[in-house]
């Protein structure tokens, strides 16, 4: 639709080419997953398109943007992980610029990097689609792609977390406290 096309054109100017292609991949993957899991396909397609809206900023730029958007409280827990701020800043910026965007879409964007306890189906879809979109090449991801529609959404999300958190550990990266909390919450539920 017109709103989607207009934001797609905006995004092409906000992020580099490869990130733009990634966003289109997440958009189509999220839409397909929404169809499979009985969620709003149009909302998922738009959330996927917009999820990396603020990915074009460098570390200093994204910190300044968080302050400017009035969400500097996020900065404390994200102190050494500024690359995780683009979710919260994108949600705040999009809400300000496009007040017509529904809250569930903004939430999915805000949570797409760390996850959170009690994620909605749309939140889970955007999180997973971010990892399995066709542009991501990695052996472990094919297994996740094959699970779409065969397992419940929460189970697919836990499998995706295994992949994402496992990668962070292997690369000796910091793990955001929200990501740890999410892991504990969903793993306990999956038992
Ligand atoms: O924006 P994307 O690259 O599409 O993916 P993303 O928003 O899910 O994550 C951005 C980066 O942050 C990516 O390299 C994975 C990484 N990441 C996700 N959770 C954590 C994390 N990095 C750290 N250090 N800690 C986390 O908990
Ligand atoms: Fe992202
Ligand atoms: Fe992600
Ligand atoms: Fe992404």
Automatic annotation (TrEMBL):
**Gene3D superfamilies, from UniProt?**
Hypothetical protein af1432
Which molecular function terms from Gene Ontology are attached?
bis(5'-nucleosyl)-tetraphosphatase (symmetrical) activity; metal ion binding; nucleotide binding
Q: Which reaction does it catalyse?
A: P(1),P(4)-bis(5'-adenosyl) tetraphosphate + H2O = 2 ADP + 2 H(+)
Per UniProt, residues of the HD domain are 19-135
Enzyme category, top tier: hydrolase
Query: Domain of life here?
Result: Bacteria
Alphabetical UniProt keywords: Hydrolase, Iron, Metal-binding, Nucleotide-binding
Pfam families assigned to the protein according to its UniProt record, in alphabetical order: HD (PF01966)
Q: What is its EC number?
A: 3.6.1.41
Keyword Transit peptide among record annotations: no
**Cited NCBIfam families:** bis(5'-nucleosyl)-tetraphosphatase (symmetrical) YqeK, HDIG
- Entry protein name: bis(5'-nucleosyl)-tetraphosphatase (symmetrical)
Give the originating organism.
Answer: Senegalimassilia anaerobia
């Amino acid at each position: 639709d017109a709103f989607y096309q207009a934001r797609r054109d905006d995004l092409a100017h906000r992020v580099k080419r490869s990130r733009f292609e990634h966003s289109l991949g997440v958009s189509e993957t999220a839409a397909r997953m929404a169809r499979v899991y009985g969620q709003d396909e149009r909302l998922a397609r738009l959330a996927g398109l917009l999820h990396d809206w603020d990915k074009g900023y460098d570390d200093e730029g994204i910190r300044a943007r968080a302050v400017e958007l009035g969400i500097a409280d996020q900065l404390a827990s994200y102190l050494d992980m500024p690359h995780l701020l683009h979710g919260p800043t994108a949600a705040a910026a999009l809400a300000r610029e496009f007040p017509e965007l529904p809250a569930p879409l903004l939430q999915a964007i805000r949570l797409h990097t760390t996850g959170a306890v009690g994620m909605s189906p749309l939140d889970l879809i955007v999180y997973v689609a971010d990892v399995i979109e066709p542009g991501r090449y990695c052996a472990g991801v094919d297994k996740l792609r094959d699970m779409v529609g065969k397992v419940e959404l929460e189970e697919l999300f836990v499998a995706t977390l295994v992949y994402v958190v496992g990668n962070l550990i292997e690369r000796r990266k910091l793990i955001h406290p929200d990501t740890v909390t999410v892991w504990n919450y969903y793993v306990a539920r999956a038992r």
